[in-house]
Design a protein that fits this description.
Number of helices: 18
Helix content: 10-25%
Low-confidence stretches: 403-413, 474-481, 485-491
Distance between the termini: 53 Å
Strand content: 15-25%
Number of strands: 32
Structural class: alpha/beta
Mean pLDDT: 93
Length: about 700
């Protein structure tokens, strides 16, 4: 297959934009810079002053051309967005946030992990529908509204708010092929008000149209809108945040165009498939913006290394304390540094205000740099913030690390103190000039930074998805039939798969969920079509120790009613259980249809009552490829005994396809009737949301057990 681009290399549209430095910069040249994601920095330090002047000229011109007022940044309810330095994107059913064993949300576990590994979070996007949406006719709003324990006092959103996090919801504008309710504007505004949400992530959109902005603001004053990828300059006026996704930087750190235009506009760097986050961390640090922590990308583990997590802890601790300096102070990108540091790949931004200065330093090189970074030692108090966790670092009389003994520098022209900037890492210096008031945040920051040492451990923290073996029932009701059609021969009502080794070809549609193990893309820039959603195959092999009988037909509503009558079965959570039944009984005329609105545990309980179990996905396929499996009407997907977990995501493989198919977007879950070799990976939601109108099941038996 030939590709139109190399998925490992940024496209021209994603590359940093060069700023012309020769000759006068006319209006047309200035307007052309509106299209930048990042303003590329010149390699030659002699050009940096001119480069900064051109950026100033562009900002002044662009604000005039677009009539910038900054009114959206004056809303008191939304002031938090300007200092939202870390945001996490989290699947509602991430096993850090939800316990399948306890059937409840576990925000305490999620928050403790964020505190330990990332020095807390400022906001979270609660991802809800994709990649499950499309399995049936539920729309994106249903996947928020139909979640017990999400809203209300003591609900998940309220708990996150109480912990100091702001909550974003996700809007999928491509969802046009599911159940229709009111128009999107009305539905989204209602969800935002009901949760209540602080922000909206605009999935696949760079910006919201003005009417949507107005409706959301009316529903929830101060709502923060965050689009995906580059935001048009003119819309910085009404969008106070944006994703810096697929932003390639220059070799010398450049400047983020949107944040340079308006310092209060928060951007979050993110590269979803990367295992090395150095590039976005360094760009965020030197620009004074934030990052997105996204460790589970639609069910795929892409966790952060300890090195990157340690870098983020140090960054956000400084950023949160010095946020006023970052927002209101003078910003000098690529400020002058000692030549030897610059030649080693060390660069810095300088933020200064009323005698207080902060240098945010990055090291583009692989090796640690230890030496002077400033051209001279400024008079006053100079603190190396990022050496505070090093017990060997020399300190001043207050206990704050300095690189030379004596603490306070007596005057300009003294030898600049040495500083260590870790390879591919960051560092920070803060300076208080003689006579300037020490900022109130400094003592607390000094104390907090003692806890955050750098780490050189860049290993990827692999996770394996392991098959979950369900526990056998403690006892079997005496009235339970022991095999299909109790008293009948197994072969009469089932397809028997012989014992022995097998090899299968499994077909599937490539999705961001991947399949069994690992990420579908690693360090790839933009894995778009044909790298995404194209048909693929994989080989599975194994061995059956004994013959397996797979029921030729699916369990019906009438059969499931017999099970309930015989056992009094009650699920751990009843939400959506047999939601299509009327007064606890199958609807008239639908008794022989496949039972649906049952989850894995419901299907397992029934199968155990029948003296069997669910077939594995391989057993289902082996039986299906004989042509002996019958499909009920309507056709529904079948649960299989294929539940997996990597500790963060649970999933199961569905077989058979269904009559239902959501059309209009390739982002929907697979639909339509499928051949036996086709498998679809379904991420498991909790609290009953896995129960679907499009999923039923059939039983299986190990033959030697049945006939014994």
């Amino acid at each position: 297959m030939s590709y139109t681009f190399d998925p490992l290399v940024p496209r021209p549209i994603d590359l940093p934009t060069s700023v012309p430095l020769d000759g006068p910069l006319g209006g047309q040249d200035l307007a052309a810079l509106d299209q930048a994601k990042i303003f590329a920095a010149p390699d030659d330090p002699a050009q940096w002053a001119a480069w900064r002047e051109r950026l100033e000229a562009w900002r002044t011109d662009a604000r005039e051309r677009h009539g910038f007022t900054g009114a959206v940044y004056e809303r008191p309810q939304a002031e938090w967005a300007a200092s939202c330095f870390t945001i996490a994107q989290v699947w509602l059913w991430d096993e850090l946030l939800y316990s399948f064993e306890e059937n409840r949300f576990t925000p305490e576990r999620f928050l403790a992990d964020a505190r330990e590994r990332f020095a807390d979070l400022d906001a979270v996007v609660l991802w809800h529908a994709y990649p499950v949406i499309g399995i049936d006719d539920r729309n994106q709003w249903d996947f928020y509204r139909d979640v017990p324990g999400l809203t209300g006092p003591g609900g998940l959103v309220a708990t996150l708010h109480a912990a100091g996090l702001h909550v974003f919801v996700d809007y999928n504008p491509w969802d046009t092929g599911t159940r229709r309710g009111e128009d999107d504007l009305s539905e989204l505004a209602a969800v935002v008000a009901d949760l209540p949400a602080d922000g909206v992530f605009l999935d696949t959109l760079k910006k919201a149209e003005p009417e949507l902005v107005e409706r959301l603001e009316a529903a929830r004053p101060g709502i923060v809108l965050e689009g995906e990828s580059k935001l048009a300059v003119e819309r910085i006026e009404d969008h106070s945040s944006s994703w810096a996704q697929f932003f390639a930087d220059s070799s010398v750190p450049g400047v983020l165009r949107a944040h340079w235009y308006e310092r209060r506009h928060m951007q979050h760097h993110v590269r979803r498939w990367n295992r090395d986050h150095t590039d976005e961390l360094q760009s965020a640090w030197i620009n004074g913006v934030g990052v997105m922590v996204w460790e589970v990308v639609f069910g795929v583990w892409v966790g952060w290394s300890e090195r990157d997590a340690a870098t983020l802890r140090r960054m956000v601790t400084v950023q949160r304390a010095a946020k006023d300096l970052l927002l209101d102070g003078g910003w000098t990108p690529l400020t002058d540094l000692a030549p030897e540091a610059r030649e080693a790949g060390v660069h810095a931004s300088l933020f200064s205000h009323e005698g207080v200065s902060l240098w945010t330093l990055v090291n583009r090189g692989e090796d640690d740099w230890t030496g002077p970074v400033l051209t001279d030692a400024p008079a006053g108090r100079l603190i190396d913030l990022t050496s505070l966790a090093d017990p060997a670092a020399p300190t001043d009389p207050t206990g704050s690390p300095v690189a030379q003994a004596g603490g306070t520098v007596d005057g300009a022209g003294a030898i600049a103190p040495p500083v260590t900037v870790p390879g591919r890492g960051i560092a920070a210096l803060v300076h208080v000039a003689p006579g300037a008031d020490e900022p109130a945040w400094l003592p607390g920051l000094v104390e907090e930074m003692r806890r955050h040492a750098p780490s050189a451990d860049a290993r990827f923290p692999h996770r394996l998805a392991r098959r979950i073996v369900p526990q056998a029932p403690a006892s079997r009701p005496a009235a339970a039939p022991t095999h299909p059609g109790a008293g009948q021969d197994v072969e009469a009502s089932a397809v028997v798969v012989p014992a022995g080794p097998y090899v299968l070809t499994v077909r599937y549609r490539a999705r961001e969920t991947g399949m069994y193990q690992g990420a579908p893309y690693v360090e790839e820039w933009k894995p778009l079509a044909p790298r995404l959603h194209d048909p693929r195959t994989l080989q599975r092999d194994g061995e059956l120790a004994a013959p397996v009988a797979v029921a030729a037909t699916e369990v019906t509503n009438a059969q499931f009613a017999q099970f309930l009558d015989a056992t009094g079965y009650r699920p751990a959570t009843r939400h959506r259980f047999l939601a299509h039944w009327v007064d606890g009984r199958p609807p008239a005329g639908r008794e022989d249809e496949p039972v649906t609105f049952v989850d894995l545990d419901d299907a397992r309980a029934y199968s155990a009552w029948r003296g069997g179990r669910l077939p594995s996905e391989d057993e289902w396929q082996l039986a299906g490829e004989t042509g002996g499996l019958l499909r009920g009407a309507p056709v529904v997907w079948n649960w299989t005994e294929s539940e997996h977990s990597d500790g963060r995501t649970r999933y199961v493989m569905l077989k058979g396809g269904s009559d239902h198919e959501s059309v209009g977007s390739e982002w929907y879950f697979d639909g339509g009737v499928q051949r036996p070799e086709f498998s679809a990976k379904l991420l498991l939601p909790g609290l009953g949301l896995a129960r679907s109108a499009s999923i039923g099941f059939r039983c299986a038996w190990t033959v030697d057990e049945v006939t014994a």
